[in-house]
Amino acid sequence: MNRELRRLSWGIFVMFFALFVSSTIIQVFQADNLRVDARNTRTLLESYSAERGSIIAGNTTIAESVPANDQYRYQRTYYDGPMYSAVTGYYTISQGISGLEAAMNDELSGQSNNQFFDQVLALVSGRDPRGATVQLTIDPVIQEAAWKALGSKSGSIVALDPTTGRILAMVSKPAYDPNELASHDTVTVIDRYQQLLVDDKAPLVNRAIAGNLYHPGSVFKLLVASAALDSGLVSTSTTVKNPSVLKLPGSDSVIKNSGGGSCGGTATVTIATALKLSCNIPFAEIGARIGESVIQSYAEDFGFGATLEIPMPVTASTYPSNMDQAQVMLSSFGQYDVRVTPLQIAMLSSAIANKGVLMTPTVVDSVIAPDLSVITPFEAHEYSTPISAKTAKTMVKMMIDAVGSGVSSNAQIPGIAVAGKTGTAENGEGEPYTLWFTGFAPADNPQVVVAVVIEDGGGLGQSGRGNTVAAPIARKVMEAVLAQ
Amino acid sequence: MSPTAIDDRPTITEQLILRLRIPTKIRNLEASLIVFAMIINAAAIALVDIGATGALDAELIGLVGGLGAIVLTMHIAIRYVARDADPLILPIVTLLNGLGIAMIHRLDLATGLSGWQANATRQMVWTAIAMVIALVVIVAVRNHRVLQRYRYLWMLVGVILLVMPLIPGIGVTISGARLWVDLGFVSFQPGEIAKIALALFFAGYLVTARDSLSAVGKQFLGVRWPRGRDLGPIIIVWLVAMMVLVFQHDMGTSFLYFGLFMVLMYVATGRAIWFVVGGGLFGTGAIVASLWLDYVKGRFDAWLDSFNPAIYDAIGGSYQLVQGLFGFASGGIIGAGLGAGRPDITPLAESDYIMATIGEELGLVGVFAVLCLYLLFISRGLRIGFNGADDFGRLLAVGLTFVLALQVFVVVGGVTRVIPVTGLTTPFLAAGGSSLVANWIIVALLLRLSDTVRHQNQGGEGA
């Protein structure tokens, strides 16, 4: 019997040996693969329980992780959540993350390559890993001015510093409160998220950079005028015919100037007058003269057709291709299939304001480690030089006239030269207009470029105009900058 | 008699124990080891509190104090009724039981259960009940040979317990397996108790039937097969095991009973051919079952292809198994620390997947430690088998020990993908009253058997 028992003992030992081997395989050799499996919620929860870095604008904290007494250990908290929602985005437990929270997730969660040694140190010393703080270029005073100036209207405002590309304000309305989505009560969050998702007013959409693209209307004339002058195909003294009605080639349709009539009543008209009075017919003729490919090439230099990361991804603005003559004419005053983001329009003005040099826009000033050392300092980058300094100077002069004595007069600030251009884009038969203003101040030494877009005619149907609705809002934002 | 006569190769621990020939010294060793085990248990429960909530909880006193008080009562009782019992068994089981309560308490904290709702409190109460029953067994069974006399009674008890869940009205189906009996005032898994009755019956029966079963039959394929008329018992046990598989949907228990009978037959007769016969019978049964029974096939699929999304998402698929594996993986070698993991993500983490909980929070180190504790316990049980004076006692000790070893293998092998998952409980660790009572009765019987062994070797009155 002892012989059998010895064998049985060996048998039991083999059984246990198999358990030693299997647990070693799982916990040592397969562990890394198991940890990165998408179905492993532990890894996900672990990332939530690290102390996520703060988001700071100026000296104001707009998002931070506050210790919480639950399994996630920290509660993401936003201050003035709706006002900054276009910048911060949201950080949910189960419904994903967006905005800067998503674009800078590696830095905020402490996982970026630059923070590698800090991670190792945290592991060795046993302290919890911490994320880096993101310092924004957003100026809380200007952001608040823009937020208030937009009032209850749907639309967006982008303000930036043309010499560095720093975005000073970025507002989108209607907005949402990211605190509602940061709750750890998943059921409530999913309910609220679904509500926001199906809301007709699309509060989750960041209209400044990622909304449905807008018709630019007359603000696109800045790009056509820049292209015309910079290419040398049109000079300041070039004149074009000035009828009150123009029949489009190859069709029975006609185009008219806004308000009917000719452009200023003369037989011919210069590009400066056409821009100042925002006439459609002369721009249709200028566009037809310089052609699609020239406009296309300038549009690309200004940033059209390219996705940009600020670091949130920006939807590419579009200038159509393979157009017939009539379509080129329509697109030359910002109709047909030209579609833009407010940020793209701000970039257009920015290049003109900065002597022809377009600086890459960004909302991130710097990334700061938990020990307050700067991981990534701010660096201004040139995006392109779409036009010469000479062309830019001419454009500035024309834009000063447009505000000073033209149809963009509501952006005037007493004692300050403001350069600008309004737009009133049609969206189809009976639809309310999209109202625009873009410009900068002071014109000779620009401190701020703004682009304002108001949806749905600012609630005024087809009677709202860029100059009556968008220009006064832009003025308030520019005044807030100049008051500093 | 020299100490070495008791064991062929005495370990240092054993030598140490053997030097302590006076019974009170053995009991004093047991007492100090129990204190050591309770210190570890108290530390584990305290660390669970600190790790999970950052503060010590008042329930700690109840859990540690309660367990300590019952174990101490047990120890004092043994001083009077089984003075020569093995001094390692009780401390090992105390440690496993206490560690189980710590992990269950940890999961209670995660799920927000407290007071009488908490699984740890219930486990505490069940531990007390189980120990009282164990005490009764030790006191009542002064001479284990009496048990042999009632072998057919044990068979009857075993079969009744096995069939009970199938009786309409009292049988309850939980997660697909019909293993539970609900008598209104208490619900339990009779199969857990049945394994003891069957071990008693098998040991008693085989002691008398071994000569006949060892007889050699015809030679075929170079092997001497058993005689045809001796195949009766194994076929009956096989049929019972298949019945459990088909009607109660319980692969684990079925395998446990059959494996126990096969091993005891081998030990009793010394004929390895019973493994061939038994293995063939059970293997055929399992293959047929996997073709005909969806749940058996599902278990095999979940085992072989756990990470397949279709199987992962299927009802009764591999979701739980894979979540358990994620738990093990997140523990790594040293573990997340008590109270610092997220074991509550895995369904049934307090019962079937308690090893995944240990793997997550105590790491591979903790898993190895627990497996070593089981191995130590098993070695103490097998020791009785080696040293016992009567064959019934030896077979019984081996049977009870092997049931526990096989159960650990089946359940830990299941959650670590060595074999398909079956619904057995992890002895002493997992939450569950029936399992605790059954395993504490095994402890009582082993303590009684070890006491007899030492008694006899000392030339005492013995049995």
Describe the 3D structure.
The complex is a heterodimer of chains A (484) and B (463). By secondary structure, chain A is of the alpha+beta class. Helix content of chain A is 39%, strand content 17%. Chain A has a 6-stranded mixed β-sheet. Chain A has a 5-stranded antiparallel β-sheet with strand order 6-5-19-18-17, with helices on both faces. A two-stranded antiparallel ribbon of chain A has the order 7-10. The longest helix of chain A is centred in the first third of the chain and has 28 residues, at 2-29. The termini of chain A are far apart. With 463 residues, chain B is mainly α. Chain B has helices spanning 12-19, 23-53, 59-81, 89-111, 119-140, 145-149, 151-163, 190-214, 232-247, 251-269, 273-292, 294-304, 309-313, 319-331, 354-387, 391-415, 433-457; strands at residues 171-174, 177-182, 187-188, 216-220, 223-226. In chain B, the strands form 2 sheets. A 3-stranded antiparallel β-sheet of chain B has the order 1-2-3, with no helix packed on it. Chain B has a two-stranded antiparallel ribbon with strand order 4-5. The longest helix of chain B is centred in the last third of the chain and has 34 residues, at 354-387. Residues 1-5 and 459-463 of chain B have low confidence and may be disordered. Classes of the chains: A alpha+beta (484), B mainly alpha (463). The interface between A and B is large, with 34 and 47 residues.
